[in-house]
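Collaboration report, partner site 2.

Our partner group contributed sequences for two proteins of shared interest, and the home lab folded both. The records are reproduced in the order in which they were received, starting with the first partner submission.
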Amino acid sequence: MSLDIALYRLHNQRLSQTDFTKPAEVVSWMGAVQSQDFAGAKWAIGLRTNGLSEADVERAFAEGSILRTHILRPTWHFVTPKDILWMLELTAPRVRAQLAYMDRQLELDKDIFKKSNRVLINALQGGKQLTRADLGAALQKEKINTDELRLGHLMMHAELDGVICSGARLGKQFTYALLEEHTTEQKNLQREEAVVELTRRYFKSHGPATLKDFVWWSGLSAADARMGLEEIQSEFQQEVIEKAAYWFAKPLSKEINASNKAYFLPNYDEYTVGYADRSAIFDRSHVNKLDARGSVLAQHIVLTAGQIVASWKRTIKKNGIEIAVNPFRELKKSEMKAIIQAAERYALFLGLSFALTFEETQSS
C-alpha cells in the first residue's frame, strides 16, 4: 500500500503537527468537532493546538469563540460562530427527519416548537444565559409540557431552528443563549455552496477518506455528498485501495514519516468518529478487549504510529490524576516511552500531576 492512511490522517487532523494556537482555529479547520462528552472534546481540541490548557479551551467556550449545538447528526458538536448558520441550514433538515419518529411519540409538532421557541427567546433576550432547568421552568409556566424526553427535544429543535446555542457554563452546569447574539460575523452560503464548503473542509482535515466516510460524518445524502466531491475533486488527490477510492489533499511539501509519538485520544475523537470505515486504524481482532459497548468510538484510546493499541481510563484525585493504560498487545519499550510522554502532555493540559500504570496485556 503506497498510501499510509493512518499517518496521513494524523497529519491532516493536526495531531502529529500543528500551528494552531486557538480553539476556534481547530474547530474551523475540522468543520465541526463532536462534543457530547464535553471534557473529552476539550482535550480533542487541546491535542490539536500548541500549548493550550483546559482552562484556555473552557475560556474560549465561555466567550463564545466556539459554540456547542446539535449539528450534522443528532449529537452535539463544537462549531464556530462564522460557520454555525450555514451549517445548520444545510444539515438541520436531515437531523429533524431523524428526530421525527420520537417527536410523534412525544406528541410534539410544529406548533409546539414555534410556541416553545417564542418562550425561549423571551427568556434569553438581552444577553441572558440560563440553564436547561431554568428554561424548562419558563416553558412549564406557559403550559408547555416538558415531561419525559420532551424538554430535550424542545431544546434540540430550538438549536436546529437557529434560536439557541451554548452559553458559558455556570459552575458545572451548561447554559443556553440566543444564537443571534453570538453570530456577529456570519458566512452566508447558498445551499450548493454550503455542500461544497463542507465537503472541502472534511477532506482537507479528515483525508484520506472515502465518499462513504463523508456521508457518515456529514449526515448529508449520498447524492449531495457526491455532488460536493465532484465540485472539489480537482483540489484533491485520489488513490484506490482495495476497490475503495480515498481522497486527500495534494502531496505535502515534505514527506510524512512514521510517527514515533503516542496520543491519548478521548472518546468520540474525530480521528475515530469521523469515518464509517475504521479498519485503517483499528485491528478488529482486538474488539473483545474493549468494554461492553464494543466500539472504539466510546473508548478513550491510545495511538502509536496512527494505530489503536490500547484503551485508557482516568481517575481525578485531590492530588492529581491517575491514568491506567490497558494494552491490546505487548508494547515495545519505545512505545511505552512514547505513551509516558503522551500522559505527561495530557496532565499538563489539565494542570495536574499524574501517575501512570500499565495493566497486563489481555490475551486474545
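Second partner submission, folded after the first:
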Amino acid sequence: MSQILTIGDQETKDEHEFYVADNGIGIGIEQKFHAQIFGLFKRLHTQEEYEGTGAGLGIVKKIIEDHKGRIGVESELGKGAKFIFTIPKDAIAPRAG
C-alpha cells in the first residue's frame, strides 16, 4: 500500500483549523494511545522499527499550546490517522525573555 498524505484547513469565526491525515506508520493509532502520543519522547515503536526520538508530537503540542491552540488526533488502528490543530485568530506569539 502506498502512503497517502492529505493536508487541509478551514477558518471559523475565532480560529484557524488545520489537519494532516495519512495512512502511514502502523496504519493508525489505537485509541488507548491517543493521549500518550503527545508526550515528549513517547514512542509506540522501537528505534529499530522506525527512526526518530518520539519528540516530534510533544514539541508540536507545546508550540500550539503556546499560541493558545489545541491539538488532537482522530484515528483507528488499520484506518490511518488525522491530526487536527487550531490556532486562535487573535493569538500572539509569546515573547522571548
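Feedback sent to the partner group on the second submission included the following. The helical segments are 56-66. The chain has one helix and four strands.
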